[in-house]
Write a structure and sequence with these properties.
- Helix 1 runs parallel beside helix 8.
- The chain is built from 8 helices and 18 strands.
- The longest helix is centred in the N-terminal third of the chain and has 14 residues.
- The protein has 2 domains: 197 residues, FAD/NAD(P)-binding domain (3-Layer(bba) Sandwich); 114 residues, FAD/NAD(P)-binding domain.
- The radius of gyration is 21 Å and the shape is globular.
- The strands form 5 sheets. Strands 3-2-1-7-18 form a 5-stranded parallel beta sheet, with helices on one face.
Length: 328
């Protein structure tokens, strides 16, 4: 839904149409800035691709944007409720957004002048916000067989795995949710966990469930282990007890995701060299080392994707727009 795409240069272009990108657009609109959201997929694309039965960790009021009430059936809303909420914000506020338009390159050509090249068009803008999240690039484990059709790095619906022997790799919320749901749909689930136990950041109301299912043997788990090789009908697992072969139909590699660091580097944004790859930005304004280019949301955390989420990064919108208005 776009209203003024030919009005250039924009005061602000927002890369990413997720909740934080939407929050930035709402703030820009309040200050009469000309703006455009560019989203490579559908509206709130990452959220749209979350598992079908996902329940948020946060309560609905923590997911609200611009004090617009988020009414959900339960205190912790489901995916479909969130999709409806954010979609209604965009349509009711007539936000200027281009969907299914991927930003391919951003080049700074001078002070207050950035050229944005997309899969469809090119734009110029005085300022740019990068709010692209982290869900698009999986953390690959780089083992033989990872490219087989039986392997997936994303999980959607448990029905697909009913009666099947499914290995779930990981011990985070996504892996635990998948294991429990598949088990309850009649799947034969084995979890392969690199550490000695289920992750401590697993949702507090879910952790007792997964621990009990493992303890009673309903869900099998191999701890201090890793995948060594994935074959057509089996998976080789390496652990302290040595290698073992498990008969297998499907493998879910839910080992996390990461931001597009190459995209940031291509703009000239500096990343920390300590392994965390945290982008350089001013915590007071969210402006990067490139003047006029800002970061918002989870992308600020580098590889530490658990540091920023909707609840604590909504404030980035006000911080950024305040700096833009104050310096204009």
């Amino acid at each position: 839904m776009s209203t003024n795409n030919r009005q250039q240069p924009y005061d602000l272009i927002i890369v990413g149409g997720g909740p934080i990108g939407i929050a930035c657009a709402l703030e820009a609109k309040k200050h009469d800035l000309t703006y455009l959201i560019l989203e490579k997929g559908t509206l709130v694309n990452s959220l749209y691709n979350y598992p079908a039965n996902m329940t948020f960790f946060s309560t609905s009021e923590k997911l609200e944007l611009d004090e617009i009430p988020f009414i959900s059936t339960n205190p912790k809303p489901h995916k479909q409720e969130a999709l409806e909420y954010y979609r209604r914000i965009v349509t009711s506020n007539h936000l200027n957004i281009q969907l299914f338009e991927k930003v391919e390159k951003i080049k700074t050509e001078g002070e207050n002048q950035h050229k944005i090249t997309t899969s469809r068009n090119s734009y110029t803008s005085k300022n740019v916000i990068i709010a692209t999240g982290f869900y698009d690039i999986p953390n690959y484990i780089n083992v033989p067989g990872e490219e087989l059709p039986k392997v997936a790095h994303y999980y959607n619906d448990p029905h697909f795995y009913a009666t099947q022997k499914t290995i779930v790799v990981g011990a985070s919320n996504s892996a635990v949710d998948a294991a429990l749901e598949i088990y309850r749909k009649g799947g034969d689930v084995t979890m392969v966990v690199r550490g000695p136990a289920i992750g401590e950041r697993v949702k507090y109301w879910v952790k007792p469930d997964i621990d009990n299912r493992i303890d009673e043997g309903s869900i099998k788990a191999v701890f201090n282990a890793k995948i060594k090789e994935i074959k057509e009908h089996e998976v080789i697992i390496s652990s302290k007890e040595g290698d073992q072969s498990l008969e297998n139909d499907w493998v879910l590699l839910l080992t996390g995701y990461r931001p597009n660091f190459e995209f940031l580097k291509s703009m000239g944004i500096k990343l920390s060299d300590d392994g965390r790859r945290i982008p350089q930005y001013d915590p007071e304004t969210m402006e990067t080392n490139i003047k006029g280019i800002y970061l918002a949301g989870v992308i600020c955390g580098g590889t530490e994707t658990h540091k920023w989420f909707i609840e604590n990064s909504r404030v980035h919108a006000k911080m950024i727009v305040s700096d833009i208005v104050g310096s204009s």
